[in-house]
Every structure is written in structure tokens, then in C-alpha cells.
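Subject: Interface between my chains keeps coming out wrong

I've been trying for a while to get a sensible model of this assembly. When I model each chain on its own everything looks fine, but I need the whole thing in one frame so I can look at the contacts. Pasting all components below, labels as-is. Any help appreciated, I'm running out of ideas.
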Amino acid sequence: MNEHLSERLSSYLDGELVGEEFAAAEAHLDACAECRAALEDLRHLMSRARTLDDRPPERDLWSGIAERLPGATPGVVPLRRRRFAFSLPQLAAAGIAVVALSSGAAVLLTHGARTPAFPESPSSAMMAVPAGLASAKGIQSYDVAIRDLEAAMAARRSTLDTATIRAVEQSLAIIDRAIRQAEAALAQNPNNMYLNNHLAHALDRKLEVLRRVTSMAAAS
Amino acid sequence: MKRFAAAVAIAVFAFPPRALSAQSLDSTFAVRSGASLELQSVSGSVRIRAWSRSQIRVQAETDGARVDLDASSSGVSVRAIPRRGEGDVDFTISVPVGTPLEVHAISADVDVGQVCGPARLGSISGGVTLVCAAGDVEVESVSGDVSATDIRDGHTEISSVSGDVQVRQVRGSLSAHSVSGDVTLDRVDGEDVGVETVSGEIGFSGPVHDNGRYRFHSHSGDVTVRTDGDLNATVSVSTFSGDLESDWPITLSPGPGRRMHGQDWEFTVGNGGARLNLESFSGTIYLRRGSSPRRED
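Reply #2:
Try treating it as a single job with all components included. I did that and got this:
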């Protein structure tokens, strides 16, 4: 079988292949189930991205977001007009990034107060992510944000009663378990977009819980 | 009209900020239309009800905590401050119908009824109950149960980390979250509904509008969607080790995104107008006809 389409998949999807290139891609897709599946994943990803609101984040938030997102540059790119060009190994990372942006997780990244680490905070499950995953950069961004929020929550710990601290820690443990299960499933199905998205959702949940607890403790 | 406004203003400013430490407190403030109530409490209870007067009445029973009151043209602010380790205050507050509310508590239960305005209510370890609101609503707790009933014309955001989330009779967009608690949405009528839990179960009943977007995501909990009448939706179902049970016929149509791929399905019911996104990593996803739970559910 010929070499997989890889980077040419997004060009194929964008209608940029013509003539012999297009015919060769069509022929390859007919014969290669792996590339067909990757093409579907890419379509799905682009479909998800197109459903996102164009509304830009607040400008004052963007600088904080940009600092944390690998490769991001200041400024707002309207998602509907964005051209998606993914190679196969980038699909997983792209899935994480789309979910992170769409769920507001990026906004949460700006909330982290830089206070000393909380020694009793749950260990970050993200550290266990296989190093070979293309989404590692996205995971690292989550990891930094989560560490910041864990520290912020630690600083507010005295505001919370022991029962609440226990409830929060149990909830974080539940999320960490979900993260580990998603990671284990991803290890078996590294190209599965649902699993990539699901992992991102679980990470979002953890960010959201930390942010919510911290902001509520601060408000009270 | 001018004389009335002046009289109201005088009534409001006749009560300057003050600190009280008595065992009980009962103060009433005349307020303008649209005046808000802000309350910060620690422990005890908060009960807020509507009445027909253009006044906000604050009654408090305290075991030693200080209660600060501040009235201005924009509304009344109430703050309980613990003293010598005593922070319990039981608040009973009456407000005009439609008063915007903002309540933050640490361990107090918060109970709001029939005010029917916008509301932001939160208690870290207490439960929060809201009956009747209009406009944007935010209800949250960390370890307590939260419920919202009869919410109209706005966006509702409701969440608890470890408690259950219950929502009934909501008209408008809705976002609900929990980690380990169950999320139950009963008679929710909106075109933008999103629910996420990690280990809790999700139950939804209500119409699925043709141009609506509905997202129900759980990690290990079951997801049950019950709809009355016709269903016209493009349904995407994602699971890793869970199952799908549908009362509606599932036809996998050809074309992008319509084929079965791993544990990821997309299919169309009716004209496919609505977007229905159902995910459970390891739970079962039920797509049911009718709004009433079945015995096996």
C-alpha cells in the first residue's frame, strides 16, 4: 500500500488537491481504512470547531490565555474562517485544543493565583499521560493551570470546613479516576477522537471544580 | 411622581450603615423599583420571600455574630461577620417581587421562594433551593444539593460538586454540572441545554426543539433523555464501554459523520433539525419516548 495521506488529508478535505493528486488520494482512501477513519475524525473535529461561537474572549483575558497555550499568538482568530490543517499525529492535539477553547477552560487559566503549593492537594493525574501522545502540549497547559488552581484553593483552605474539604477531595479523586480511565482507553485507541475529547472534558471538569471552589471560598 | 421618588430616596438614606450585635434584628428599608439585595453569610440559614411592599425587611437571629446593614439607592447589603467564633445567623428577609438577589454563604442553607427575579445564589456546604426566578440565574454549591424550579426567560447555570442537582420547569437556556451528584432536569424547555457529570447520572425530560442544541455528558453515569411528541434530531452518541438503548429507530445513513466508527455513532431521527449529543464513557445511554420514567429506568 502507498504511504498514508497524512498531511494531505486536510488539503483533500479543503478541496485543494487537483488532478493526479486528487485521484491518488481518492484511490488511497478507497483502499485504506485507517486513512478513511482519520478523514472521518478530521471531519468530525472540523464540524465541532465550526459550531463554536465566534465571540472572542475578553481582550484582557486573552494575554493570559495566550501565555499558556502552546503556539498561540495574541489576537483572536474567528473560528468559522479558520483553515484546519492537521496531520494524523496532530489530530489528538487538535481535539484537545478545540475542546479546551470551546469549554472555557482557557479562560480559567487566568484565574490561577500563584501561591505556595498545597501539600495535600491531589496529585495531578495529567503527569501520567503517555509522553508519546501528540496532545502532550495541551496536557501540559492543563497541568500548569491545574497546579495554579490547586495552589489557589490551598490558600483558601482555611475558609472551608473539613466536610467540604473532604467532599472536594473525593470529587477530585473521582475526576482523577475518570482521567486515568480515559488515558487507559486512549492508550488502546490513540486516534479515537471521542476519547481525546473525553479526556479533555475530564481535565476541564477538574479545572472547573478547582476554579469554582476557589472563587466561592473567595466570595464568602 | 417626583415627590414620590424624593420620599423614597429620603426613606432609603434615612438608614445609614450601622453595625448591630443584638441577638435579634428587625429592620425595614424603603427601596426603589429594581433595588437589589446582597447578602453574605457564614452559617445558619437564609430564607428569602417576596412580599407586596416596596420595602426590604431584614430579620436576623444571631448567637453573637455581627450583622452589618447598608442601604443605598441601588439596594440593601447585608453581611454577617463572625465574632469570637460565633457565626450562626438565621436570616428571614422579605423583598419586593422581582428583586435581583446575590447571596453567598459558607455553610448556611439558602432558601429563596417566589421572588421571581434574577438571582445568584451560592453556599459552599449548604443546600440551595430556588423557586421562581426570571432572567439570568446562577445557583451553586460545593457539597450541598441544589435545586431550581420555575425559571423563566434567561440563562440558568446550576451546579454542585458533590451534591445532586435538580431542575424543574425551566424555560430558557440551561447549563448544569456536577461531579458525583445526579443531575435531574424535569420539564426543561430550552433550545440550548448542556449537562455534565463525572460519576452521576443524567436525566432529562422536555421537548427537543428542531433548532435546539442539547449536550449530555457523563463519564460513568447513565444518560436518559425523554422527549414528548416528535423528535427531529441529529443524534451523536459516544461511549467507550457503555450501551445505547433507543425507543426511536436508528438508521445509520451514508455520508460524512453518519457511519459507525468505534463507539461513535451519528444518526438522524425525523428531519434531524436538533443537535443531540449524548456521551457516557461507561454508562448506558437511553433515548426514550414520553416524559414519564419507566419502571426499568
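Reply #3:
Confirming on my end. Residues 1-21, 254-262 of chain B have pLDDT under 50 and may be disordered.
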